[in-house]
Amino acid sequence: MTLPACPKCQSTYTYEDGSNFVCPECGNEWTAAAADAPEAAKVVRDAVGNVLQDGDSVTVIKDLKVKGSSSALKVGTKVKNIRLIDGDHDIDCKIDGFGAMQLKSEFVKKV
User: What does the alpha-carbon distance between residue 78 and residue 6 come to, in Å, rounded to a whole number?
Assistant: First the structure.
């Protein structure tokens, strides 16, 4: 029997511990049922609950300080053609006057 690779770090050094699988490299534990189930697609929502998709346009709903810049991103700034990514900041975009930037979806509203 071949054991599944770790779903978190893709390590092949997994082992069984009762009814669970364990990864010794990252410490992840999962069940056999979780190994067979496909991952659910992550749904990203804006501040009011609208579902966001790649290519959408959004508006900033709060003044945001920009790290490394003396100016802030003002309320009402429109951001076109967003791209959704994994992580704490789930929107990747380019903003005129600021350049490439990552935003949190809780601070934008879909246009």
Answer: 40
Q: How far apart are CA 103 and CA 44, in angstroms?
A: 12
Q: How many CB atoms lie within 10 A of CB 50?
A: 16
For β-strands 91-95 and 83-84, DSSP reports them as antiparallel
Residue by residue, pLDDT tens for the chain (111 residues) are 688 888 888 889 999 988 899 999 998 998 877 656 555 667 899 999 999 999 999 999 999 999 888 889 999 999 999 999 988 899 999 999 899 999 999 999 999
Domains, the chain, in order of start with CATH, read 1-37 (2.20.25.10), 57-110 (2.30.30.40)
User: What is the rounded distance in angstroms from the CA atom of residue 102 to the CA atom of residue 91?
Assistant: 5
- pTM for the whole thing? 0.64
